[in-house]
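Researcher: Next entry in the queue.
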Amino acid sequence: MNAAGDQPRLFPIHANLSDAVNSNIVQSEIEGGVHLRDLPPGTVLEVRTQNRDYTILYKGWDEALISGHPEFCPQPVPVTIHGSTWGGSMLKARFIGRGMRLEFGPRGVRPLRTSVILEVRSRQAAAL
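Model: Structure for this entry, 128 residues:
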């Protein structure tokens, strides 16, 4: 219980954010996804969106090799994973979440956004 006698919140809200933004943040945790901070380098992420299937080899921090788009990354290309967005300008940094759009891009290039993410799976890369 908190000082007001209310039940504790499972997901804390931020007092300086709107109810809509707080709702989106909570919904992203409910829908699930992957926080890059929790992944060891060498993790492979399989990200299925409404329009494409991407394969991401996580290199560490926010660096990765990504493939899966016939025009922008038909073969693995180095990118920075910025995070996920709900379609607007607000970004949940270093997070790849269901129901959101992945934002990534090569350094110095305008970021790309995927269609809505349907599924995220992770596995360790095969040893070379």
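Model: The mean pLDDT is 85.
Researcher: Noted, moving on.
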